[in-house]
Description:
8-stranded mixed beta sheet; single chain; Rossmann fold; alpha/beta
Amino acid sequence: MNYKNLVDPELRPIAQSIPYNRAVIACANFFLPIALRLTPVPKGLRRRVITVNGHKGFAFRAELFEPSDAEGRLPALIDLHGGAFSYKASPYHKRLACLYAAGARCRVFFPDYHLTPKYPYPAAYDDAAALFRHMTEHAEAFGVDPERICVAGDSAGGALAALICSRYASEGLERPRAQMLIYPLTDVTMQTDSMKKFPDTPLWNARNNRRMWAFYCGHLSGDAARAASPMHSALPAKLPDTYIETAEYDCLRDEGVLYGERLRKAGANVEINETRGTFHGYDSALTAGVAKRNIEKRIAFLKKALRGGSAV
Length: 312
């Protein structure tokens, strides 16, 4: 299908079909770290780098973005980048993390977690949980208020954020104040209408999604594989306030909505923003009007959550 005639006009230049395989992953992950280093931190923010021991004790780095004039304790956000559990963070992920730090006036932790195919599930989740634990255990040193921590993620990062929020009690973690899930990956079974309808959408599609799950948890089966999927995870008694954003032409659209409905039924306050004329990764066009408007909604959610009241 020609989606360029359906999507927002400002998004048409990036509405491209992108292959997903081991060769593409290897090539991308050679160039992405270079591009990330060359992406400047905006004026008014400063950057630090920390090292955390995560999956099987393996160390990984996390960048920390914070207002340049920050003093004392601030709220914090763990921002888990997307990329099919396979790709390093893109420059636009870094720019978004900086926008959240500036807009919500918080300290944003931006981890470079271990990636599949080399490190399948639960490596990425283990790293995300280790960062959350490390940040709360050293909250005073980082200048973080441990009672005002949010987790966020897009796509695969959204799955990691959702798992932290469903497992915090069983993992012995502090309860996150809120979670912000951007076109999140939530269901390993891939049986939704949008998954069946969108095998060829721009940037990401159902065919790529199936291969991604095979890379991430193809070594598992049954309940062990479903454990990687937020839709099939047990939910705690108290759930964080939740913002879920979906894209219209995205194979993950329906599972994002269904996950939000599942959280509502379990008692969570949930805001679902079903964006129109969009596709998976549309916000990589940061200057497009539709991206700007929805990024403003994300920041408004974070500001409310991090101030201490209900964000929804």
